[in-house]
Amino acid sequence: MKAASAFLICGLVAGGAALASVHTEQVRAPSGRPLQVRRVACAAPGRPPLSAALTLEEAGPLHFQVVQLATNAAGAEVLATGRALPQIQPHYQRYVTQGQPIGRLTLSALLGTWRLFGLKFDWEKVTYRCALS
Q: pLDDT digits over 53-71, tens only?
């Protein structure tokens, strides 16, 4: 899976871990509805670990809204490149920058697709393997 696609998924489905050197994008203030925090951690030999945390707020029975996206420094670098790509930018803009609701089914499909491809992606000639929690 290409890095951009993987980091769209990370940006949309990862979640709230304690991250070193955190880069945080506060999308909106929580409204008091239940929150879910999703995490992704990725590693490759000889490279700094990548991690991201996404805080999602329930927006009715079928949707979430992004409240906050946090990454470590290495994750921020990959995400900055990925979110600028034309195939990723509209989705990042919609769900993270604008805070529009993302369907639970859409989120599950993104996670399922990434799992199908082995929770890995290539970045700068190295394969990163990831774990979701």
A: 999 999 999 999 999 999 9
